[in-house]
User: Which sequence fits this backbone?
């Protein structure tokens, strides 16, 4: 089934070249289908790249979805023009009175800043609080996962001695978890972060369950019994060249970054990375839409959040 996006969203051409089934608003109005409504809070500076990455994964499912992008009204984007944001993104005030089947909160390059010092933190907290009664299931990514665990459950983040960057093996800890249904016992996932959450802190909250973890990267995936919340501490959505682009960016900034681990063959930047995480990433998002959203969300959107 297709994902519905604005008619002239730049990501459409890239996705269509990959045979991802995209349907534009103009065509969608001619169909009589009740799609899922998915809101994406895109906090990444490279908006278009993140749009393509997430839409690629959401478009590989058998469920038709309507996609809505949300910008932070309290933040001035340095990498994306306000004209672009005004055209393709909503503000929270424009959607706060609506209901959504799913919400995705992306990562953001602000891990070294205290949560409360992030300029849009209060607005993000308002969105996360709103999600309890207006969204059926929320999928948090990397810093978005750390922010969600901190806001909802008081789980702190800790600085790492060096950036966690690379592709890391993860182990499935609960084979009965629907989110990981069909996963191999061991799967790869990219990480790119300067901070971490710790297993011991999460275990103090009875409603939280670590369902995947890595010997090297630590906590990988956490699920909550409350509001169908999912917290993925890595970047399953990353493309083949995303970590390479981040590494080259940091080099240009004079940051002397270490090579992403398990990424360039023979640790040689002249060798193209080999993608080992794509199939599990597809399955992760498919399982979320199917088991956490589609099979449980009320038929009438107005019933979302009534039992919270």
Assistant:
């Amino acid at each position: 089934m297709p994902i519905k996006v604005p008619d002239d969203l730049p990501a459409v051409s890239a996705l269509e070249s990959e045979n991802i089934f995209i349907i534009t608003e103009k065509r969608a109005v001619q169909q009589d289908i009740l799609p899922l409504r998915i809101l994406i809070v895109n906090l990444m500076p490279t908006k278009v790249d993140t749009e393509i990455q997430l839409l690629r994964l959401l478009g590989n499912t058998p469920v038709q979805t309507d996609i809505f992008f949300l910008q932070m009204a309290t933040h001035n984007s340095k990498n994306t023009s306000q004209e672009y944001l005004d055209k393709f993104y909503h503000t929270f005030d424009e959607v706060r009175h609506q209901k959504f089947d799913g919400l995705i909160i992306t990562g953001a390059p602000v891990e070294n800043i205290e949560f409360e010092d992030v300029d849009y933190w209060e607005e993000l907290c308002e969105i996360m609080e709103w999600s309890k009664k207006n969204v059926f299931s929320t999928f948090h990514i990397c810093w978005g996962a750390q922010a969600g665990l901190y806001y909802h459950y008081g789980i702190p983040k800790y600085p790492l001695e060096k950036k966690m960057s690379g592709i890391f093996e993860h182990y499935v800890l609960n084979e009965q978890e629907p989110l990981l249904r069909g996963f191999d016992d061991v799967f790869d996932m990219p990480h790119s972060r300067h901070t971490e959450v710790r297993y011991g802190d999460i275990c103090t909250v009875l409603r939280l369950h670590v369902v995947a973890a890595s010997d090297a990267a630590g906590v990988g995936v956490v699920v909550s019994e409350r509001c169908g919340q999912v917290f993925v501490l890595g970047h399953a959505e990353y493309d083949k060249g995303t970590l390479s682009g981040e590494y080259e960016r940091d080099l240009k900034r004079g940051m002397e970054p270490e090579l992403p681990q398990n990424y360039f063959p023979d640790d040689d930047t002249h060798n193209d990375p080999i993608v080992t995480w794509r199939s599990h990433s597809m399955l992760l998002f498919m399982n979320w839409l199917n088991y956490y959203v589609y099979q449980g969300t009320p038929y009438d959107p107005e019933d979302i959040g009534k039992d919270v």
